[in-house]
Amino acid sequence: MLLLWRKTPALYCLILSALVLMPAFNVATDLYSAPIFLLLIFSVFQRDFYRLVYCIVSRYWLAFVSLCLALVSCLWADNPDIVLASWRNELLIPFLGLLVYCFFTLRLDEESAKRVLFGVVALFVLLSIIGFVWFGYGGIFRIFYDNGYYTTYVVVVFSAFLPFVKSWSRIVFYSCLAFCFFLTGQRVVWLLLPVMAFADFICSGGKRNYRAIAGLVFVALGSILVLKYLQSVRPADAFDPHVKPSGLLAYLMANERLYLWGQWLNRGLGSPWLGIGFGRDNALAHFSQGGVWPKEYLTHAHNMILNQFVQLGLVGVSLLVATYGQLLKGFSSALKNRFAWSGLFVLFFFFLRNLTDDYELRRIMMFYLGMLGLCLGPCLNEHVAKSDSKPQFEHAR
Prior knowledge:
Layout: H1 2-7, H2 9-21, H3 29-43, H4 47-59, H5 61-72, H6 80-106, H7 110-135, H8 141-144, H9 147-161, H10 170-184, H11 188-203, H12 210-233, H13 248-253, H14 256-259, H15 261-268, H16 280-288, H17 304-332, H18 338-353, H19 362-380
Helix pairs in contact: 2-7, 3-6, 4-5, 5-17, 6-19, 7-9, 9-10, 9-18, 9-19, 11-12, 11-18, 15-17, 17-18, 18-19
């Protein structure tokens, strides 16, 4: 990989972009998991990799405590084999991906790391356009698996690139974002769009002029219009099409996911301190007891806080909040680096997205943590000790 970087840095960046994006594709699990292990084998022979691991563990140790809690929850779970399988697939392997991609961007200068991130965005948008043109609306999920997964990918990809958007490219950026949001077919994304525009407004700092404010208002009004249109063509409750609220807020609050939050909260109250064991598959097995589970109950809480409460109790929720706080603090301490803003936005918008959904899926976790590693690497290069004997990843001269 180092030789590839020195010979053809542009190709190196493109390959790294494709590898980070690969879990988003509708391909076999082994195909997008194998590169992680191959890159990991290369990494373990590099001294800086161990320095990086030590740096991450020392700065974000609560994440490792959370990993350990999820693992030991197999001791009190009804289905320890399911817990172990979920822990391996949805936490361990994705976390290894974070370490690998963080390591491979650690020595990149900001411009080269930006190339990798731009490559992810460009490939994602290009494949979305090709999928739409070739397969039509809805057929895009032949490439990106399904609309729930695709929605998370869109949020993560565009929030990561948000700090690098220039004034001249905003029209292109928001046009691509709106197009991808349209392809998701989901309502919640149109609530996120004005929030992303506001985050862009804050990140741009001194460019708070009337044009920027007008752009914010335009995006907010556009989102409202789209939601009003969806209200006229889509039922508020997927399980009861006869529910037809008159107002837009009532329409959004009538979503079938929201009124089931109370049911999942009651399920969590059965084991309030440590939960029933990690994993959505374990939770489903626990409550269904091997029987038929009605689709109207949904297979998970569709809320990351509730999911954590059901699986790992109040201890798990406290650790989740504390881990997020530690990560936010770490990125906030390096805001002179644009990738620190990227990391903040990825964390924030991933959290907002999963207030109405579940992230405990292997593809989603591998992509999310891979993108987080891509943002974290350039922020940690000053904290990881440099080895005099090891050449650095610098621009080829």
